[in-house]
Amino acid sequence: MADLLPEHPDFLWRNPDPKPSYDAIIVGGGGHGLATAYYLAKHHGMTNIAILERGWLAGGNMARNTTIIRSNYLWDESAAIYEHSLRLWEALPDELEYDFLFSQRGVMNLAHTLQDVRESVRRVGANKLNGVDAEWLDADQVKELCPIINTSEDIRYPVLGATYQPRAGIAKHDHVAWAFARKADELGVDIIQNCEVTGFLKDGNRVVGVQTNRGTIHAGKVALCAAGHSSVLAKMAGFDLPIQSHPLQALVSELHEIVHPTVVMSNHVHVYVSQAHKGELVMGAGIDSYNGYGQRGGFHVIEEQMAAAVELFPVFSRAHLLRTWGGIVDVTLDASPIVGKSPVENLYVNCGWGTGGFKGTPGAGWTMAHTIATDEPHALNAPFALERFETGALIDEHGAAAVAH
Amino acid sequence: MSDLTVDVAVVGAGPAGLAAAVAAAEAGAVVAVVDAGTQTGGQFWRHRPETGDADPDGHGHHDWNTFLDLRRRFRAGIAAGRVHHLPGLQVWMASKNDVDGFTLRTTRTVVGGEGVTPTVHAARLVLCPGGYDRQLPVPGWDLPGVMAAGGIQAFIKANGALPGKRFVVAGTGPFLLPVAANIAEAGGEVLAVLESSSLSKWFPHWKAAASVPGKALEGAEYAGIFARHRIPYKTRSIVTAVSGTDRVQTVSWAKADADGRAIPGTGGRYEDVDVIGFGWGFTPQMELPLSFGVQTRLDADGSLVAVVDERQESSVPGLFLAGEVTGVGGAVLAVLEGKAAGTAAADASAVVLPADVLPAKEAARRDRHRRFAQAMHQAHPVPHAWQEWLTPETLVCRCEEVPVSEVTQARSTLGAEDSRSLKSFTRVGMGWCQGRVCGFAGSCLGAGPGEPAAAASLASAAKRPLAVPVPISELASLND
Lengths: 405, 480
Description:
A: FAD/NAD(P)-binding domain, D-Amino Acid Oxidase, Chain A, domain 2, 2 domains, about 25% strand, B: alpha/beta, FAD/NAD(P)-binding domain, seven-stranded mixed sheet
């Protein structure tokens, strides 16, 4: 099966030392930081830029998610940015000249209760109006599309139907990061690892650079793409971000023959299951309720999730779980991201993506690049401004975020 | 059965676990023994199924009478209601809290059983999980027919059959001898035993060796078997490559210098080989001890082991350890350690003195065996230059098919010097074995050529929420 995967990269990017100054600095070398840098260089001609990563490239949530990509969010604003992101995904393998195994195998979101059904049917309607490919499947259609799901009526959470987005799917996360990194590097972006931002240089209310463990670096503009740690950075810069960080766990089994044709998510019981290209079952759990930056979670969450998984997929009951891991989801109170300007001039913020971060990677990078280059948000990310928590113009996506947070 | 509450839980029923269980039960404790095997004995005393009258006679075993004695007392404990034997189970998670003491969650060793697996609660816990055969990568070691030396032995002991006809046994340490002897006695042809070390490495340790005369007797016994079956025993010799089209056919070997580097122009090839068995000592099974955060140290053989006091108690109160996890040293040592651990664990007062857990004579014997083990590790080290055997294409991680080139590149260009970082970059240790086979080699490669694996790196290869793979349905049933 190894021949299915692209070659491991040898030297996809340089390993430069930081220069004394840049036109723009992006803090965080995860997927969003890399995509932001790529689009800044590609679409806005800003190539004198650096990505500062305190650890190693794509070593945070980019390495710790379940790689699901979809755009079937409820509200117009969310559907627009996620659908834009999905369209970018569809073009990226060619654009980045890297086959990162983007597999549009479809994603199902199961409905188990009458409320689920109503909410799901409503969402399908909203999706269609927004040009998102969405379908409502009844239980028989669910069974037809994914024969291994238990659709009997006498289980604790019977499958009453599902929303289905055929264009949704999964991708190989680390290859996505390498693909962006290679292209960004080719365009002149400095990717600097082991470089932790420890403070901000300001001239009045304008950011003019950052202090790091590798010295002071001046910058015309600074963008925070540090997921949950953005709030720590924001505090250093002198403002608060309304985000909380929670552990979110995932699990992987041994290799099995490919039997799972799609991706199945269940909002109600907090389980999502797909089968990776080599055959591992990849499963995600619900979040741990407490806040923290520890990349691990409580075992009771996994136990509950497995009970649900076995009931939905009896065929997997004897599959062995090999390992578990935790990532950090940074969530806002309306379960939508913050992408835009900050109270500090020339400082931009991208965070709070919750469980949507991986699927939003190109969309976040694309809109952030526009915002940084023009000092104005694009129409796609304007609704996701930080000020919405003062104005009250919230975009409540708790229903479509799949994992309650 | 779902929940069982006892005074002392013992994990493992090999030499250490059996001795611990017997000692604890005879001291009056109610004991539960969780063991992966379907019958007692562990790897060391693995034997044919105990069915009917055909009880194994102990042929090919050492200290078989010790086993029979322990098994008799173990069975007496079961009959008296003081020992609960839980065979065919592994502990996938062990935890401790102040109210309930220790909790062990178990999973079946063999898939297929139905119903809920037992959860064991105990006031005190003795872990005797044993170890894995240590493996080092060599070109071609991913071919079918490459086995762990201990794997061959287990195959013979459990089945009374051989996994092939023509064998080569290679690696280092006294363990290669019984493996070759078992093969020959079972009717297999051993083309050679290739020992990387030189026996002269024992000279500085003659005192420690002489203090355990039993080992010399074993050596003499093997010398007899080797002579009878005409098994060549080649020291300072290593396998340089294993090759074949679909499976092992040819084993190439060379003489080695003092660091274990192949000397060009020496050696030769063995053709038509069915099975090559490698053994580079043992890697203690540290998943469960590490899950409690016990204090650890690096042993003379480069293994991460737990620190214990004279009563075999770890840095975690109430947690006792015996056997490989406190340092690899053979079955006699394991039995003594198990006895001490079981006796100490049986005492609820927690003020038991070292002199109370092991008579002075046996304590002295334990010390002698520990010194012997240290001498053995120094006489049979993992060769200093083993990484030089590898080609860029040699797989380090067979599950995920990660070649040496990726690992060395991750170390040199990405700064991945420990098993955890290497895993993130290259997927080494991410497959079915979860680093149990490749963790030691991966940690060494991360440390760099000629460098020993760092303790933190070995620890992170073994520290995991799931100590063993566990079926989803068993996790699910916990939620009932």
